[in-house]
Design goal:
48% of the residues lie in helices and 20% in strands. By secondary structure, the protein is an alpha/beta fold. The chain has 2 domains: 101 residues, Winged helix-like DNA-binding domain superfamily/Winged helix DNA-binding domain (Arc Repressor Mutant, subunit A), CATH 1.10.10; 197 residues, Rossmann fold (3-Layer(aba) Sandwich), CATH 3.40.50.150. The strands form 2 sheets. Strands 4, 5, 6, 7, 8, 9, 10 and 11 form an 8-stranded mixed β-sheet that branches. It has a 3-stranded antiparallel β-sheet with strand order 1-3-2. The structure holds S-adenosylmethionine. S-adenosylmethionine binds next to α8 and β5. The site of S-adenosylmethionine has 17 residues, from α8 and β5.
Length: 330
Protein backbone atom coordinates (compact mmCIF):
# COMPACT_ATOMS: atom_id res chain seq x y z
CA UNK A 1 0.00 0.00 0.00
CA UNK A 2 1.32 3.45 -0.91
CA UNK A 3 0.96 6.64 0.97
CA UNK A 4 1.30 9.75 -1.15
CA UNK A 5 4.88 10.42 -0.07
CA UNK A 6 6.20 6.94 -0.95
CA UNK A 7 4.32 7.04 -4.25
CA UNK A 8 5.83 10.42 -5.09
CA UNK A 9 9.36 9.42 -4.14
CA UNK A 10 8.98 6.25 -6.24
CA UNK A 11 7.72 8.26 -9.20
CA UNK A 12 10.55 10.78 -8.83
CA UNK A 13 13.15 8.02 -8.69
CA UNK A 14 11.74 6.42 -11.84
CA UNK A 15 11.07 9.70 -13.68
CA UNK A 16 14.16 9.89 -15.82
CA UNK A 17 15.06 8.44 -19.20
CA UNK A 18 17.86 6.06 -18.20
CA UNK A 19 16.05 4.98 -15.05
CA UNK A 20 13.01 3.88 -17.03
CA UNK A 21 15.33 1.90 -19.26
CA UNK A 22 16.97 0.31 -16.18
CA UNK A 23 13.54 -0.55 -14.78
CA UNK A 24 12.55 -2.23 -18.04
CA UNK A 25 15.81 -4.18 -18.20
CA UNK A 26 15.59 -5.33 -14.57
CA UNK A 27 12.02 -6.48 -15.16
CA UNK A 28 13.53 -9.12 -17.48
CA UNK A 29 15.86 -10.54 -14.82
CA UNK A 30 18.69 -9.71 -12.43
CA UNK A 31 21.51 -7.62 -13.89
CA UNK A 32 24.88 -6.56 -12.51
CA UNK A 33 26.23 -3.02 -12.70
CA UNK A 34 28.79 -4.00 -15.33
CA UNK A 35 26.10 -5.67 -17.44
CA UNK A 36 23.92 -2.55 -17.21
CA UNK A 37 26.91 -0.40 -18.16
CA UNK A 38 27.45 -2.60 -21.20
CA UNK A 39 23.79 -2.44 -22.27
CA UNK A 40 23.16 1.25 -21.61
CA UNK A 41 26.50 2.45 -22.99
CA UNK A 42 26.97 4.87 -20.06
CA UNK A 43 29.77 5.24 -17.56
CA UNK A 44 29.79 3.09 -14.42
CA UNK A 45 29.55 6.03 -11.95
CA UNK A 46 26.50 7.34 -13.82
CA UNK A 47 24.74 3.99 -13.90
CA UNK A 48 25.63 3.39 -10.22
CA UNK A 49 24.10 6.73 -9.27
CA UNK A 50 20.82 5.88 -11.03
CA UNK A 51 20.78 2.48 -9.35
CA UNK A 52 21.42 3.99 -5.92
CA UNK A 53 18.46 6.35 -6.27
CA UNK A 54 16.17 3.58 -7.42
CA UNK A 55 17.25 1.29 -4.57
CA UNK A 56 16.69 4.08 -2.05
CA UNK A 57 13.16 4.58 -3.42
CA UNK A 58 12.54 0.83 -3.04
CA UNK A 59 12.02 0.25 -6.77
CA UNK A 60 15.05 -2.00 -7.09
CA UNK A 61 16.66 -4.47 -4.76
CA UNK A 62 20.42 -4.82 -4.40
CA UNK A 63 21.80 -8.36 -4.21
CA UNK A 64 25.55 -8.54 -3.46
CA UNK A 65 27.21 -11.66 -4.82
CA UNK A 66 30.95 -11.92 -4.28
CA UNK A 67 32.66 -9.16 -6.25
CA UNK A 68 29.42 -8.42 -8.16
CA UNK A 69 26.17 -6.74 -7.14
CA UNK A 70 22.99 -7.71 -8.97
CA UNK A 71 19.87 -5.55 -9.21
CA UNK A 72 16.31 -6.63 -9.67
CA UNK A 73 12.80 -5.30 -9.20
CA UNK A 74 12.12 -5.07 -5.49
CA UNK A 75 10.20 -7.85 -3.80
CA UNK A 76 8.60 -5.53 -1.27
CA UNK A 77 4.92 -5.22 -2.06
CA UNK A 78 4.32 -1.49 -2.32
CA UNK A 79 7.45 -0.58 -4.27
CA UNK A 80 7.33 -3.57 -6.57
CA UNK A 81 3.70 -2.84 -7.47
CA UNK A 82 4.70 0.68 -8.52
CA UNK A 83 7.66 -0.69 -10.49
CA UNK A 84 5.46 -3.26 -12.23
CA UNK A 85 2.73 -0.70 -12.93
CA UNK A 86 5.30 1.61 -14.55
CA UNK A 87 6.76 -1.19 -16.65
CA UNK A 88 3.37 -1.95 -18.21
CA UNK A 89 3.19 1.70 -19.38
CA UNK A 90 6.61 1.73 -21.04
CA UNK A 91 6.24 1.44 -24.85
CA UNK A 92 8.10 -1.69 -25.96
CA UNK A 93 8.32 -0.32 -29.51
CA UNK A 94 10.59 2.54 -28.42
CA UNK A 95 13.72 2.25 -30.58
CA UNK A 96 16.07 2.75 -27.65
CA UNK A 97 14.35 -0.01 -25.68
CA UNK A 98 14.45 -2.33 -28.68
CA UNK A 99 18.22 -1.76 -28.84
CA UNK A 100 18.50 -2.32 -25.05
CA UNK A 101 16.68 -5.64 -25.39
CA UNK A 102 18.96 -6.78 -28.17
CA UNK A 103 22.03 -5.92 -26.04
CA UNK A 104 20.40 -7.69 -23.10
CA UNK A 105 20.19 -10.83 -25.23
CA UNK A 106 23.91 -10.53 -26.00
CA UNK A 107 24.68 -10.21 -22.27
CA UNK A 108 22.57 -13.28 -21.58
CA UNK A 109 24.28 -15.29 -24.32
CA UNK A 110 27.67 -14.44 -22.88
CA UNK A 111 26.51 -15.38 -19.36
CA UNK A 112 25.17 -18.69 -20.66
CA UNK A 113 28.50 -19.37 -22.36
CA UNK A 114 30.49 -18.64 -19.16
CA UNK A 115 28.10 -20.78 -17.13
CA UNK A 116 28.46 -23.61 -19.64
CA UNK A 117 32.27 -23.37 -19.48
CA UNK A 118 32.16 -23.62 -15.68
CA UNK A 119 29.74 -26.53 -15.87
CA UNK A 120 32.14 -28.40 -18.16
CA UNK A 121 34.75 -28.17 -15.39
CA UNK A 122 32.50 -29.63 -12.69
CA UNK A 123 30.34 -31.96 -14.80
CA UNK A 124 32.87 -34.76 -14.61
CA UNK A 125 32.74 -35.02 -10.81
CA UNK A 126 28.95 -34.65 -10.76
CA UNK A 127 28.56 -37.48 -13.26
CA UNK A 128 30.88 -39.68 -11.20
CA UNK A 129 28.71 -39.19 -8.10
CA UNK A 130 25.48 -39.65 -10.04
CA UNK A 131 26.71 -43.03 -11.26
CA UNK A 132 26.79 -44.21 -7.61
CA UNK A 133 23.06 -43.86 -6.96
CA UNK A 134 19.71 -44.28 -8.70
CA UNK A 135 19.08 -42.01 -11.73
CA UNK A 136 18.24 -38.40 -11.01
CA UNK A 137 14.84 -38.66 -12.77
CA UNK A 138 13.85 -41.37 -10.30
CA UNK A 139 14.91 -39.16 -7.38
CA UNK A 140 12.99 -36.20 -8.79
CA UNK A 141 9.84 -38.29 -9.26
CA UNK A 142 9.99 -39.51 -5.66
CA UNK A 143 10.66 -36.00 -4.38
CA UNK A 144 7.55 -34.76 -6.23
CA UNK A 145 5.54 -37.61 -4.65
CA UNK A 146 6.68 -36.58 -1.18
CA UNK A 147 5.83 -32.94 -1.82
CA UNK A 148 2.32 -33.90 -2.96
CA UNK A 149 -0.10 -32.08 -5.25
CA UNK A 150 -0.92 -28.97 -3.29
CA UNK A 151 0.41 -25.70 -4.62
CA UNK A 152 3.25 -24.08 -2.69
CA UNK A 153 3.70 -20.41 -1.81
CA UNK A 154 7.37 -19.67 -1.09
CA UNK A 155 9.96 -22.31 -1.90
CA UNK A 156 13.57 -22.18 -0.70
CA UNK A 157 16.10 -24.48 -2.35
CA UNK A 158 19.18 -24.55 -0.12
CA UNK A 159 22.39 -25.41 -2.01
CA UNK A 160 20.52 -24.99 -5.26
CA UNK A 161 23.48 -25.79 -7.54
CA UNK A 162 22.26 -25.42 -11.12
CA UNK A 163 18.72 -24.62 -9.89
CA UNK A 164 17.32 -27.97 -11.04
CA UNK A 165 14.94 -28.42 -8.09
CA UNK A 166 13.59 -24.89 -8.58
CA UNK A 167 12.92 -25.68 -12.22
CA UNK A 168 11.10 -28.96 -11.61
CA UNK A 169 8.86 -27.27 -9.04
CA UNK A 170 8.43 -24.01 -10.97
CA UNK A 171 4.82 -24.59 -12.02
CA UNK A 172 3.74 -25.46 -8.46
CA UNK A 173 5.11 -22.44 -6.59
CA UNK A 174 4.24 -18.76 -6.32
CA UNK A 175 7.81 -17.74 -5.64
CA UNK A 176 11.14 -19.57 -5.43
CA UNK A 177 14.57 -18.69 -4.12
CA UNK A 178 17.69 -20.77 -4.58
CA UNK A 179 20.67 -20.14 -2.31
CA UNK A 180 24.19 -21.39 -2.95
CA UNK A 181 27.70 -20.41 -1.88
CA UNK A 182 29.27 -21.12 -5.23
CA UNK A 183 29.14 -18.25 -7.73
CA UNK A 184 29.88 -20.56 -10.66
CA UNK A 185 26.84 -22.68 -9.77
CA UNK A 186 24.71 -19.57 -9.32
CA UNK A 187 25.74 -18.37 -12.78
CA UNK A 188 24.51 -21.66 -14.26
CA UNK A 189 21.27 -21.52 -12.26
CA UNK A 190 20.62 -17.90 -13.25
CA UNK A 191 21.19 -18.67 -16.89
CA UNK A 192 18.92 -21.77 -16.78
CA UNK A 193 16.16 -19.82 -15.02
CA UNK A 194 16.36 -16.99 -17.55
CA UNK A 195 16.32 -19.36 -20.49
CA UNK A 196 13.22 -21.05 -19.06
CA UNK A 197 11.58 -17.62 -18.58
CA UNK A 198 10.85 -18.22 -14.89
CA UNK A 199 10.38 -14.66 -13.59
CA UNK A 200 9.05 -15.86 -10.21
CA UNK A 201 12.31 -17.62 -9.36
CA UNK A 202 15.57 -16.05 -8.22
CA UNK A 203 18.90 -17.24 -6.95
CA UNK A 204 21.25 -15.56 -4.57
CA UNK A 205 24.53 -16.13 -2.90
CA UNK A 206 24.26 -17.39 0.64
CA UNK A 207 25.49 -19.89 3.16
CA UNK A 208 23.27 -22.71 4.39
CA UNK A 209 24.44 -21.87 7.94
CA UNK A 210 23.32 -18.24 7.68
CA UNK A 211 20.61 -17.97 5.10
CA UNK A 212 20.18 -14.47 3.69
CA UNK A 213 16.51 -14.28 4.63
CA UNK A 214 14.10 -13.31 7.38
CA UNK A 215 12.57 -15.65 9.93
CA UNK A 216 9.38 -17.49 8.93
CA UNK A 217 9.25 -16.55 5.24
CA UNK A 218 9.21 -20.00 3.61
CA UNK A 219 6.56 -22.67 3.10
CA UNK A 220 8.84 -25.39 1.80
CA UNK A 221 12.62 -25.67 2.21
CA UNK A 222 14.60 -28.37 0.40
CA UNK A 223 18.15 -29.63 0.90
CA UNK A 224 18.68 -31.84 -2.12
CA UNK A 225 22.02 -33.70 -1.92
CA UNK A 226 23.59 -30.84 0.03
CA UNK A 227 23.68 -31.83 3.69
CA UNK A 228 26.64 -34.21 3.27
CA UNK A 229 28.78 -31.11 2.56
CA UNK A 230 28.07 -29.91 6.09
CA UNK A 231 30.46 -30.34 9.00
CA UNK A 232 27.58 -29.63 11.34
CA UNK A 233 24.19 -30.76 9.98
CA UNK A 234 22.23 -29.74 13.10
CA UNK A 235 23.16 -26.09 12.47
CA UNK A 236 21.92 -26.32 8.89
CA UNK A 237 18.63 -27.86 9.98
CA UNK A 238 18.15 -25.27 12.76
CA UNK A 239 18.76 -22.54 10.21
CA UNK A 240 16.31 -24.06 7.72
CA UNK A 241 13.73 -24.30 10.50
CA UNK A 242 14.26 -20.63 11.39
CA UNK A 243 13.10 -19.52 7.94
CA UNK A 244 10.07 -21.85 7.84
CA UNK A 245 6.60 -20.57 8.60
CA UNK A 246 4.56 -22.51 11.12
CA UNK A 247 3.37 -25.66 9.29
CA UNK A 248 6.07 -25.08 6.68
CA UNK A 249 7.95 -28.18 5.57
CA UNK A 250 11.58 -29.22 5.30
CA UNK A 251 12.63 -31.99 2.94
CA UNK A 252 16.12 -33.46 3.04
CA UNK A 253 17.28 -35.69 0.21
CA UNK A 254 20.63 -37.28 1.01
CA UNK A 255 22.59 -40.48 1.30
CA UNK A 256 21.90 -43.15 3.88
CA UNK A 257 24.95 -43.83 6.05
CA UNK A 258 27.62 -45.50 3.86
CA UNK A 259 31.31 -46.43 3.88
CA UNK A 260 32.60 -44.90 0.63
CA UNK A 261 35.45 -43.15 2.42
CA UNK A 262 37.05 -41.84 -0.80
CA UNK A 263 34.12 -39.43 -1.26
CA UNK A 264 35.60 -37.36 1.56
CA UNK A 265 38.95 -36.85 -0.18
CA UNK A 266 37.94 -36.90 -3.81
CA UNK A 267 34.64 -35.00 -3.63
CA UNK A 268 34.86 -33.05 -0.36
CA UNK A 269 31.92 -34.81 1.28
CA UNK A 270 32.10 -34.02 5.00
CA UNK A 271 29.67 -36.73 5.97
CA UNK A 272 29.32 -40.27 4.69
CA UNK A 273 25.52 -40.14 4.68
CA UNK A 274 23.19 -40.03 7.64
CA UNK A 275 21.30 -42.48 9.82
CA UNK A 276 17.56 -42.01 10.31
CA UNK A 277 18.18 -41.42 14.00
CA UNK A 278 20.57 -38.58 13.37
CA UNK A 279 18.22 -36.74 11.02
CA UNK A 280 15.16 -37.37 13.20
CA UNK A 281 17.00 -36.06 16.29
CA UNK A 282 17.99 -32.93 14.38
CA UNK A 283 14.36 -32.44 13.30
CA UNK A 284 13.23 -32.71 16.90
CA UNK A 285 15.86 -30.24 18.14
CA UNK A 286 14.75 -27.80 15.44
CA UNK A 287 11.07 -27.91 16.40
CA UNK A 288 10.13 -30.04 13.40
CA UNK A 289 7.83 -33.03 13.47
CA UNK A 290 9.16 -35.80 11.26
CA UNK A 291 6.96 -37.65 8.83
CA UNK A 292 7.08 -41.36 9.54
CA UNK A 293 7.32 -42.47 5.94
CA UNK A 294 10.97 -41.79 5.15
CA UNK A 295 11.53 -42.75 1.53
CA UNK A 296 14.41 -44.88 0.37
CA UNK A 297 15.84 -45.42 -3.12
CA UNK A 298 18.37 -48.18 -3.05
CA UNK A 299 21.35 -47.71 -5.36
CA UNK A 300 24.75 -49.30 -5.69
CA UNK A 301 26.70 -48.41 -3.62
CA UNK A 302 24.72 -45.36 -2.42
CA UNK A 303 21.16 -45.41 -1.14
CA UNK A 304 19.32 -42.11 -1.19
CA UNK A 305 16.80 -41.22 1.49
CA UNK A 306 14.12 -38.56 1.61
CA UNK A 307 13.38 -37.26 5.11
CA UNK A 308 10.41 -34.97 5.56
CA UNK A 309 9.26 -32.83 8.50
CA UNK A 310 6.88 -30.02 9.40
CA UNK A 311 7.47 -26.96 11.55
CA UNK A 312 5.32 -26.87 14.63
CA UNK A 313 6.19 -23.64 16.35
CA UNK A 314 8.75 -20.92 16.52
CA UNK A 315 12.24 -22.34 17.15
CA UNK A 316 13.07 -19.42 19.48
CA UNK A 317 10.54 -20.70 21.98
CA UNK A 318 12.12 -24.16 21.94
CA UNK A 319 15.77 -23.24 22.13
CA UNK A 320 16.00 -19.58 23.01
CA UNK A 321 19.78 -19.33 23.45
CA UNK A 322 20.50 -20.98 20.17
CA UNK A 323 20.89 -18.51 17.37
CA UNK A 324 22.95 -20.23 14.75
CA UNK A 325 24.47 -17.02 13.45
CA UNK A 326 25.79 -16.31 16.94
CA UNK A 327 27.12 -19.82 17.31
CA UNK A 328 29.13 -19.63 14.11
CA UNK A 329 30.47 -16.12 14.33
CA UNK A 330 34.14 -15.95 15.19
C1 LIG B 1 25.68 -31.85 -5.17
S1 LIG B 1 25.24 -30.17 -5.37
C2 LIG B 1 23.47 -30.29 -5.31
C3 LIG B 1 22.81 -29.18 -6.07
C4 LIG B 1 21.30 -29.21 -6.11
N1 LIG B 1 20.69 -29.19 -4.79
C5 LIG B 1 20.80 -30.37 -6.93
O1 LIG B 1 20.23 -31.28 -6.36
O2 LIG B 1 20.98 -30.38 -8.17
C6 LIG B 1 25.62 -29.43 -3.77
C7 LIG B 1 25.50 -27.93 -3.78
O3 LIG B 1 25.60 -27.46 -2.43
C8 LIG B 1 26.30 -26.24 -2.45
N2 LIG B 1 26.84 -25.94 -1.12
C9 LIG B 1 27.84 -26.57 -0.47
N3 LIG B 1 28.06 -26.00 0.73
C10 LIG B 1 27.20 -24.96 0.84
C11 LIG B 1 26.93 -23.97 1.84
N4 LIG B 1 27.65 -23.93 2.99
N5 LIG B 1 25.95 -23.08 1.63
C12 LIG B 1 25.25 -23.09 0.47
N6 LIG B 1 25.45 -23.99 -0.52
C13 LIG B 1 26.42 -24.92 -0.35
C14 LIG B 1 27.37 -26.46 -3.51
O4 LIG B 1 27.92 -25.24 -3.97
C15 LIG B 1 26.59 -27.22 -4.57
O5 LIG B 1 26.03 -26.36 -5.51
Amino acid sequence: MHNLDTLLSGLRAAGEHTRLRILTLCSRGELSVSELVQILGQSQPRVSRHLKLMVEAGLLERLPEGAQVYFRISDQDSSSSLAHALITLIPETDTLLIRDMSRLNQVRDSRAKKAQDYFQQVAHSWNSIRALHVPEQQLDARLLDVIGDQSIGDLLDIGTGTGRVLEILSDRISHGIGVDLNSGMLAIARSNIEQAGLAHIHVRKGDMYQLPMDDACTDLAILNLVLHYSDNPIDVILEASRVLRTHGRLIIVDFAAHTEEYLRNDYKHFRLGFSDDEILNCFEAAGLTASLDTQQLVGDPLTVKIWHAQKQSNIASINPSNTVAEKRSP
